[in-house]
Amino acid sequence: MRAGHPLRPPPLRPVAARRGARRWLAAGAVVLLAATLAQARPQYRLAREVPLPGDEGWDYLTFEQGGHRLFVAHGTRVLVIDTDQMQVVGEIADTPGVHGIALAPGLGRGFISAGRSSTIVVFDLKTLARVAEIRSSGEGPDAIYYDAATQRVFAFNGRSHDVTAIEAASGTVAGTIALPGKPESASGDGQGRLYVNLEDRGSIAALDARALTVTAVWPVPGCEEPTGLALNARGQRLFAACSNRVMVLLDAASGRLLGGAPIGAGVDFAAYDPGARLAFASCGEGVLTAVTVTAAGTVQVAQSVPTRPGARTMALDERTHRIFLVTANFGPPPAATPEQPHPRAPALPGSFRLLVVEPYARAMTQAPQGGRP
Labelling 229: which of 190, 313, 329, 335 has CA 20 to 30 A away? Predict the structure, then answer.
């Protein structure tokens, strides 16, 4: 439509109908993208950068699957972002040393691991209001996972090397699972079987969410300090991201090593997209590595997507296939000391931001916004 020549609305076509047509077109675009992903491996690019408030550190991100909210662990609070509008719409405050967020949509509850206070903060998913605070049975809860089959929340305690199991409906502690090493990222199949990286052991532990027991511990040859862990539940395959710049593939039933592929440095998280059939590793050096498994079972890199330095954690929207990361700009690191031989570079004030990586078919229809392309 040219400026100065608006079209007259057709008769019997109210605003609500036009809005409905736009929603139908948007839904059709998602279906078309899903069909494209099923036919060929997509390509990705960094499509958008959105400024976020606050200058504190960050850790895990959690996306509300089936919704449009992203939860970001940020210092002593959790930021809540509407990913349709790309705006902060709320926060859950007073979560000291926050690490992770687990969502129980069927119960209308969310759970936050506050590592510094060794507590689990419970909040209402609709209002974001605090509901309760649960004392962890261990010290330093870090990763946190909700298992829908048992309706239990599992907080993985880094300092005490164990797992606190919580009944999500009542908020009571169901028990504690001792681990033979320091837990890092965790995942599960939704049927009561959990997996967690043991960072200091170079191993993966399998857990029974009902019996609250460790059922297996699998050493992972060639994997140093595993951090990110993703599960292809349908294919029963585990993807472990390791600090020595490799992502390894294991059989989730036996722990058998099936292969590996190179990734970037400084990895901290992994995710699996069942629609795209890709595993992702977010690496702090400033790259997002996409890994695929061929029909012959070979593990290989599908794409290395440039992001930004420091973007080491992420969350995935399985419906739109967008990937969200956060980072900041950094100044020079302070001088090394005996206590801190490898000091971290400080984040610069006012530079914290959200990165949005999109499949190329989607990104081609939208110019980068809110920052560098």
Answer: 329
Residue 338: inside a domain? no
Distances in whole angstroms, Cα of residue 207 to Cα of each of 133, 180, 214? 25, 12, 5
303 and 235 within one domain: yes
330 forms beta bridges with 347
Domain range enclosing 151: 58-219
CATH number at residue 230: 2.130.10.10
Closest CA relative to residue 65, chosen from 83, 88, 50: 83
Q: What is the pLDDT along the chain (373 residues), one digit of tens a residue?
A: 433 333 333 344 444 444 444 444 444 444 445 444 444 667 999 999 999 999 999 999 999 999 999 999 999 999 999 999 999 999 999 999 999 999 999 999 999 999 999 999 999 999 999 999 999 999 999 999 999 999 999 999 999 999 999 999 999 999 999 999 999 999 999 999 999 999 999 999 999 999 999 999 999 999 999 999 999 999 999 999 999 999 999 999 999 999 999 999 999 999 999 999 999 999 999 999 999 999 888 999 999 999 999 999 999 999 999 999 999 999 998 888 888 888 888 899 999 999 999 997 654 444 444 433 3
**Claim to verify: residue 213 and residue 226 sit in the same structural domain:** no
Of 203, 219, 235, which residue sits at a domain end?
219
Whether 146 and 126 have beta carbons less than 8 Å apart is answered as: no
The whole-angstrom separation of Cα 106 and Cα 37 is: 29
